[in-house]
Amino acid sequence: MEVELTAPNGKKWMQPLGLFINNEFVKSSNEQKIASINPTTEEEICSVYAATSDDVDKAVTAARKAFRDKSWKSLSGTERGALMLKLADLVGQHAETLATIECLDNGKPYSVALSENLPEVQNVLRYYAGYADKNFGQVIDVGPAKFAYTVKEPLGVCGQIIPWNYPLDMAAWKLGPALCCGNTIVLKLAEQTPLSMLYVAKLIKEAGFPPGVVNIINGHGREAGAALVQHPQVDKIAFTGSTATGKEIMKMASATMKNITLETGGKSPLIVFEDADLDNAATWSHGGIMSNQGQICTATSRILVQEPIYNQFLEKFKAKVQEVSVVGDPFEENTFQGPQVTKQQYERVLSYIRAGKEEGATVMMGGEPAPQKGKGFFVAPTVFTNVKPSMQIYREEIFGPCVAIVSFKTEEEAIELANDTTYGLGSALFTKDLTRAHRVAREIEAGMVWINSSNDSDFRIPFGGVKQSGIGRELGEAGLTAYCHVKSIHVNMAA
Ligand code: NAI
Ligand code: MG
Q1: What pTM, to 2 d.p., does this model score?
Q2: Whether residue 401 has its Cβ less than 6 Å from ligand 1
Q3: Closest-approaching ligand to the CA atom of 39
Q4: Domains of the chain
Q5: Is-catalytic flag, 263?
Q6: Which residues have CB atoms below 5 A from the ion given as ligand 2?
Q7: For a disulfide at 482, which of 104, 132, 261, 313, Cβ 3.0-4.6 Å?
Q8: Environment class of residue 481 by beta-carbon count within 10 Å: exposed (0-12), middle (13-18) or buried (19+)?
Q9: Closest C-alpha to 445, from 428, 476, 460, 424
Q10: Tens digit of pLDDT for each residue in 440-451?
Q11: Which ligand 1 atom is nearest residue 188's CA?
Q12: What region holds the Aldehyde dehydrogenase domain (predicted)?
């Protein structure tokens, strides 16, 4: 059920390979496995058991039993919070191992995993641990004949399906509010990157969560994911991933009328007005698309620049890419950009680059593979100019280090271009004009607006989209509403 692994940085650890059900690692019912690949070397790291629909049923049954069991149900919010704080501490103690696993399995730079992703996991757990005894109902005064009050109750068994771009963070965003409210969980990992969260499963047991409260399974989307979404004993599905899969999930979840939260794709605009601080705009707009290998749902992948400063901005953006976007082995200290997560994503990104060229856009930078020592799913940071809003590279989510830069004349035109999309997740704008900043922020059809920054996500602030970018919110106080319902209790005082 475990194998000893050693990473290129010398770290050694025991990697769990099983399905984590009832606080134990077990094989899948037919012993099927999925190989996890290191995207830097294209070699197999290890093979991990993959759940069948029978295994999903076992995990859901465990979660249902745990939901009704006193060991979880009768805990106070304060006690649930204490378990979550313990887990956050354990994640901190194992941060270097977890960052190593993430770097190996996902390809993101070790330094980023350690300095950004691991603190995020702890912050989210601690934030929602703090809420666990502060999320309660109201007394509603309707006069002396009736005493009425509300209580906030957990939804029950939550199925959570996460993607591969932020395996640890996406899990924390889902586990945090769900545990805070007293739910039990079956978390399905992305089959491309299961290793870090299987390691966290050990820490969940060590923290003292009762068996069945958190079950963690690896498995294919169409098999394990679909079984979870359709299981009649699952009360809620929370999903992060592609818009196409999100739509399928909505359809499947309708059969048993499950509560759903969806966080899907984006093609987020970033507007640079002529009065902006261009150095600041170049710094954030570079990070907003090139971080995490461009594999960010809120990536500001469409940059709209006002005409008078268009050429000046291009020069500054180009300089940023040259200075910051160091492509290389993600274990190397100075690497900014590692490989795309899988061969499939690598090919998908390259096919968009081809489409951009065929449709007549200009490749200002990159536009080709960037193998390291002849290996790996690396793509050169790519900047397209002369992009028309009709082009595929302007309309579709590429999910790679590729940006489309276009110019605009007026504020009205910028807003029109920004909103000309089926998505509505993130957005950013750069200006020194305070009133324009707030005015445009209100006009953009998106769940989030960054003024003079981009992708400056924060666990205390709600995250989510409008249009086809999703339903519901994660993070912040708003994230709690996705995991509890309000029960109303009427007491007849005349009885
Ligand atoms: P996907 O949306 O198919 O996969 C995400 C998760 O959903 C994985 O855990 C997968 O196993 C599961 N899943 C897949 N099909 C399912 C089904 N029928 N029922 C239940 N669960 C299912 O995304 P994929 O194929 O890995 O990536 C394709 C594209 O999706 C990317 O190029 C990117 O554009 C977008 N994407 C967006 C993400 C985001 O953060 N919003 C994250 C990952 C991908
Ligand atoms: Mg991998």
Answers
A1: 0.98
A2: no
A3: 2
A4: 2-264+470-487 (3.40.605.10), 269-456 (3.40.309.10)
A5: yes
A6: 36-37, 105
A7: 261
A8: middle
A9: 424
A10: 999 999 999 999
A11: 9
A12: 25-489
